Amino acid sequence: LKHLRLPHVEYVKLLDRYGKESTIGTLYLTATHLIYVEQDNHTRKETWVLHHHISSVEKLSLTVSGCPLLIHCKTFQRLHLLLPRERDTQDVYQSLIRLCQPVSEDELYAFLYNPNQTEAERRDGWDLIDMATDFSRMGLPNEFWDISSINSSYELCSTYPSLLGIPKTATVATVTGSAKFRSRGRLPALSYYHKDTKAAVCRCSQPLSGLSSRCVEDEQMLKCINDANPHCPFIYVVDTRPKLNAMANRAAGKGYENEENYPNIRFHFQGIDNIHVMRSSLQKLLESPTMSDYLVGLESSGWLRHIKSVMDAGVFLAKAVCDEGASVLVHCSDGWDRTAQVCSLACVLLDPYYRTIKGLMVLIEREWISFGHKFNHRCGHLEGNPKEVSPVFTQFVECVWHLCEQFPCAFQFNESYLLIIHDHVYACQYGNFIGNCQREQQEMRLRERTFSLWPYLLQNQAEFQNPLYKRATHNTVLRPSTLPLHFKFWCGMYNRYDKGMQPRQSVVNTLLALTLRHTQEQKTMTELQRLAVVDGILPGPIGTVSLPPDQNGCPRTTPTTSFGQSNGDCTSVSTCAGGKEDSGLEMSSQKEAEGSSATEHELQTKTDKPVSMVTQKEKVTESL
Amino acid sequence: MEFAELIKTPRVDGVVLHRPFLPTVEGTLCLTGHHLILSSRQDNTEELWLLHANIDAIEKRFIGSLGTIIVKCKDLRIIQLDIPGMEECLNIANSIEALSTLDSVSLMYPFFYRPMFEVIEDGWNLFLPEEAFKELESMTDEWRLSEVNKDFSICPSYPALVTVPKDIDDDSLCKAATFRHGGRFPVLSYYHKKNGMVIMRASQPLTGTSGRRCKEDEKLINATLRAGKRGYIIDTRTIAVAQQAKARGGGFEQEANYPQWRRIHKAIERTNILQESLIKIVEACNDHSNSMDRWLSKLEASNWQSQVKEILTTACLAAQCIDREGASVLVHGTEGTDSTLQVTSLAQIILEPACRTVRGFQALVEREWLQAGHPFQQRCAQSAYSNEKLRSEAPVFLLFLDCVWQILRQFPCSFQFNEHFLVMLFEHTYASQFGTFLGTTAAERVKLKLSQKTVSLWSWVNRPQELERFLNPLYEPNSLVIWPSVAPQSLLLWEGVFLRWNRSTKCLDEAYEEMVHIIEYNKELQLKVNSLRRQLAELETEDALPQTP
Prior knowledge:
Chain A is 38% helix and 14% strand. Chain A is of the alpha+beta class. In chain A, strands 5-6-7-1-2-3-4-15 form an eight-stranded antiparallel sheet, covered by helices on one side. Chain A has a five-stranded mixed sheet with strand order 10-11-14-12-13, sandwiched between helices. Chain A has a two-stranded antiparallel ribbon with strand order 8-9. In chain B, strand 2 and strand 3 form a beta hairpin. Chain B: It is found in: Cell projection, Ruffle membrane; Cytoplasm, Perinuclear region; Endoplasmic reticulum.
């Protein structure tokens, strides 16, 4: 608590997106959250923001009405506060700057947070997702592939998982030799095995080929991968980078595979840009949507172009595996950003399992966490190099969302599942996304000191269900269209906190409420039937309503989502009906402002919020 | 004129039809006076029946003796016909061209169409102004139904009956009419039950450069204001455009002459600009070679989404004046037959829950578009592909439907009809077997004797077996005013129209069916539970009877 210069400030104004409409309330700073409490006669609205979610705090220049503070969040929430006194503003600013960028890992929320679980529950929670189980689901090990513990002490590759899928024919010498020839030792290893075609998706980092170097073991390694697929005489090697970037790397002793040295490979570039381009693209995307030239801004940010490039690469992989039965080896530079995106997206396309609630967890755990996507750096969990931060995982989540839009019945989960995962990646409330690789996670003893997110999500899965999910009809590969016109701006993510911009009635929630009612009605039905039989209206235990089998094999427990009709709110016309020549513009921004300040969660609606938030709230209320 | 003269080759065998996302069909192509038909003459295969009136443009190509005709339809579909034989192909192409550009209204298909169904409820009699007025009378006595225009001489684009303030006599109406473009004096468009405020509509006043005024016009609109109240005039044009109109005899209401009114200018584009916008957006949607940047920049350059935004914003403004400010509104642009109607009709959808039902929406289209004199026939003569010189074509009504769709998307449970209903209306405004959208004004429709010689679209739509497809399974009547968001992020491209032929709808149809299934199943369950409950309750009362003799 030493970084808290000021526990609370009164008479703080919260401005809306356009810096206009405001509410008055009190701002509290706790060890973990920033809380804004708006209180008038009848309502008490609270806005909770986790310090870890804050990406930047800006002090704007003084105005007559107060000292403005602009807070941007990694969840794309935005708070525009107006404090009455300059000194307070400075204190709040200093505190937040310090609190949102912890210096050491021990300061992360996950090490404080306890969702009231016993040690046994904690252990079970961490054991929920297990790589060996997933390998055996894929049918591994088998005659072609081994599950090797050659990296169990992380000596072969420090950023790889302990268990690796390796071709059976690859000798220890081949594996270690290949690792030495790959950037950071990230050797070719199995990402996904497609049972039907026996084709595999493998991943690695770039070879240290430079201008002319070669490595017999690495060449042998690729041959082993090729041999592990008896149906196809070649493998695709996909370099997800733009060709120019890959060529530039050659000068630094890295680069890409030379087709002449590797027998039977077909080499492809995919042209996904690097983390720096992605970071600045997102920045532009978030700045741009001003009203008049929204589409211009969307275009110049390049964001959807990048999303499409990731999707195209994913589709390329899925097609190679599914249509040609060819194995694919994917890399970028280090093989932990673009490679993770593309491999995991291919898995979602290829295997319906990864389109389920549990399956997506397994996929993230394998392709992102265990294969060493550097969550600490990319999410900026700790104070560090801002150039390491990049929305790589966000892009993967967005690609999945685009697929959900194109295939509304193919996914077991709905949009809010993607959003909550995205929130937790940045929240550091659970241990899953802390650290840069498995080895670091073990060193931090996360399994003993923090809790896993996945059990929490599974317990609350009712609200993440897609009521339209029809597994039976989507049991094969997805073939999305990647024409530009099928990509759209994801308002539900980037304008999530501008409630006024979202549809006022939600189809998903309505249908979820109905499916919940089904369960209740079915219970009532059974009870009534029992009574009816007792009373002799019904002759014995026949005449039961035929209930459709729960096709997803998943308990439809009580969704907490409630649905209500609402109408929007609307600003007064008098301020803008001035008959001025340009009143049109003003008016439109007035209109757009409606409801955009609705970022508050009401304290009463505890059910919508993660259990953790509620617990935390109790703590805070005590400390207030 | 006989259609036969235009058909040199009525039949060709071995024609291959290509459509996006559908299997190719080989069969016989037949031309009739009104249709292009392609049939494989096999059971269980779909036949193509295309109204010539639906054809917007054709292109022909030859490779050897194999001719290809690309048919571009007004509903934005593009199909390809491979026709063996150069002469046959040329003949077919010439016939299609001639038959699809017939100018005479009386040769249109609706005059030849005989329904295969029994007309139970004649759509021509469903939405009579007298009936609408009866409803108004039950709420207020401040208005009367005037017959001043019964022979369409005061205002040729108005219906025979118009609703005007009770205190204004027909003579004043005649004088006010001379002061308004095309004689469109201010009439009632909408009465807001909740607070008695009204939306009126008109055309621009003919002030000219000299600043003419008209006491009767001023009196007429002032008669709609309560004592001490002010109203708003929403001019759908920018002030600059309105100023320019003065030079051509038009203009806008001067503050000095209308002191009780506050004027607001908006910027809804004129018809020719809207048509260009349509052509550009359709071009962008059909070009699949676009890169992402090119697609977005073309979408932006089409300005279509900006038009939607501007129209919706103006409608919200009108609705706000009524519901939030408690002030009456007069809406006009130049002629009062296009942007004016977009605004008044959308404002009603926002304000009035009845307009969000199937019948209410049909009534709205009748009242605010057909009877209000939107020149459908001129506006919908050509669509996005035509190479002909533009006359007065413009997607004014399509933009209105797009705006309705945007609201529907934001309030998916508040409309009794679904997206298919809106798409269906779009199709029928451009080509139809029904007479509803023929003609340009009420006067012309009377002259064409449409109600006797053609079938009304509503007669068909309202049959239960047709209506079923157009009902929104999520509908829960919502008695509130619904305020749509007009932020650009909230306004989407209407894929149901613009990408309709550029995507496979299999997955979307499947989702829709699943949604219907969930809702139906829920209803079924509830019925069963209720009936069991009732039986049990009855049994209990029976049991109770002997004890209370």
